[in-house]
Amino acid sequence: MIISPEQVLAALRNVEDPDLKKDLVTLNMIKDLKIEDKKVSFTLELTTPACPMKDMLKNACLNAVKHFVSKEAEVEINITSRVTKPMDTTQLKAIRNILLVSSGKGGVGKSTVASNLAVALAADGAKVGLIDADIYGPSVPTMFGLVGAKPSARETEDGKTLILPIEKYGIKLLSLGFFADPDQPVPWRGPMASNAIKQLFNDADWGELDYLIVDLPPGTGDIHITITQSFPIAGAVIVTTPQQVALADTRKGLAMFKMPSINIPVLGVIENMAYFTPEELPENKYYIFGKDGGKELAKSFDVPFLGEIPIVQGITAAGDNGAPITLDLSSKMSTVFAEIAGKVAQQVAINNALTVNC
Predict the structure, then answer these.
(1) Alpha carbon distances (Å) from 244 to 138, 189, 289, 292
(2) Dihedral sign for Cα atoms in the order 309, 310, 315, 319
(3) Cα(206)–Cα(100) distance, rounded to whole angstroms?
(4) Which of 27, 31, 58, 155 has the smallest number of Cβ neighbours within 10 A?
């Protein structure tokens, strides 16, 4: 039997991306199709390297060719990715998606989540940057082992000076903590703080990024308004604990992104400190701060629930030691953060498909 390209593409039209609700051929995700006798090879181009359904889609393509074309076909599928962006904009055009990590209340582990999301996305092959916009309590220098580090700079051909983000673990990092004495408070008024944050975006040489994650301060203050109204934001991730006092503040923080004057897509809710499991009793779960508060919050706002992160001493220790726990592939928490990062990337791709893909 002679296999033609038309037959293969017709077969692959039966494989639908479950998020984008269209077949892979229509979505232009099939690339470099080659046929030699019974050998069929092509590239499946996903919308993110962190796609949680990559194996499912690969198997579906394989089965479609075998079923609709020939059982004897020898199918080779290469997987790549091209991260989409929500809109075509000249502002920060080399950055495809700016993602905000927010909470209405301090102390819920927002910076830990932001750091581990960045590490997980980078581990999947994405180009990732992280801005520590929590000007009053910057945590990134500690969590990445960079306390006391100072970024360098370069001058462009037109005479402008650009800050060079510090790179570690494959992530480009900037924090106001790099520019201040870690033992001194930063008593800045709103306009001063807002201008400093804008510089981290506009006056830095970020290069090409798939995701720029922004660790916001707690609350709903000047920094939030400045960033959401100054830059094209792909979406916000909300971090909470299941405790009612945290949920009350987080609810306000989530509602802020849905205000007409801000209108930022909420990618979902992450529940941190969801439960405690003793190391010697791995099957036991103790819901110290309450149960399912994050799930109920997501449900009430009709946004995705992205996952639970338990209370694990290793998460804290890893951050304090300057190496987020996602780097430790032997840890179960590495898998937890990787799964959540995949869901975040998935929601970004869905939202981008609903607006304008590049």
Answers:
(1) 26, 31, 8, 11
(2) positive
(3) 17
(4) 155
> Are 105 and 218 in contact, with CB atoms under 8 Å apart?
yes
The pTM of the full predicted model, rounded to 2 decimals, is 0.86
Q: What is the pLDDT of residues 5-37, one digit of tens each?
A: 999 999 999 999 988 889 999 999 999 999 999
Which helix or strand (DSSP H or E) is residue 57 part of? Answer: helix 54-68
Span between the terminal Cα atoms of the chain, in Å = 39
Residue recorded with tokens 């995949």: 342
**Residue 37 burial class via C-beta count within 10 angstroms: exposed 0-12, middle 13-18, buried 19 and up:** exposed
Give the residue from 85, 27, 122 showing the smallest Cα distance to 338: 122
Give the Cα separation of 165 and 94 in Å (integer): 15
Q: Which two tokens stand for residue 320?
A: 């304090």
* Cα–Cα–Cα angle for 216, 144, 236, rounded to 5 degrees: 25
Phi-psi region of 266 (alpha: psi -120 to 50; beta: other; left: phi over 0): beta
**DSSP annotation of 217:** P
Residue type (1 letter), 110: K
Q: Distance between CA atoms of 158 and 167, rounded to whole angstroms? A: 25
H/E stretch holding 116: helix 110-123
CA atoms within 13 A on the CB side of 183: 0
HSE toward the beta carbon, residue 67, CA cutoff 13 A: 12
235: left (phi over 0), alpha (psi -120 to 50) or beta: left
Bridge-partner residues for 66, per DSSP?
none
- How far are the Cα atoms of 57, 62, 74 from residue 39, in angstroms, in the given order? 19, 12, 5
Residue 40: how many CB atoms within 10 A of its CB? 25
**Rounded to 5, what percent of the chain is helix, strand, coil?**
35, 25, 40
- As a whole number of angstroms, the distance between CA 219 and CA 250 comes to 8
Q: In this predicted model, what pLDDT tens digit does every residue of 239-258 receive, in sequence order? A: 999 998 889 989 998 999 99
